[in-house]
Amino acid sequence: MIACRQVAKALANHRYYELPWYRRIPMFIHIRLCVMCGKYHQQIVDVQRGVHDYLEHEDAGDIETHVHLSDEAKARIAEAMEQK
Ligand SMILES: [Zn+2]
Fold first, then answer.
1. For residues 10 and 2, what is the distance between their CA atoms, to the nearest angstrom?
2. How far does the centroid of ligand 1 lie from the alpha carbon of residue 26, in Å?
3. Which of 8, 22, 24, 49 is least surrounded, with the fewest CB atoms within 10 Å of its CB?
4. Ligand 1 centre distance from Cα of residue 4 (Å)
5. Can you give the pLDDT at residue 82?
6. How many CB atoms lie within 10 A of CB 14?
7. What is the residue-wise DSSP string for 14-53?
8. Could you tell me the distance, in angstroms and rounded to a whole number, from the CA of residue 1 to the centre of ligand 1?
9. 20 falls in which pLDDT band (50, 70, 90)?
């Protein structure tokens, strides 16, 4: 098993999804099994995967960029602004 230090160094210097599979797999196993650094590094991997997914969707142009508020939500926001 690779060391915590190696996982930390690799994640600090590279994006998880850009690493070759032969480096990602031992890292993934370590993160799953290591109580010491697993939780922390799992969060980093999740965030990096999220960014990767976002970028892929952005490239594909299928991101919903418009946020639709319900009339009720709009009224609530307007009301909150008037109170200030
Ligand atoms: Zn570890």
1. 11
2. 11
3. 22
4. 4
5. 85
6. 15
7. S-GGGS-HHHHHHHHHHHHH-TTTHHHHHHHHHHHHHHHH
8. 9
9. very high
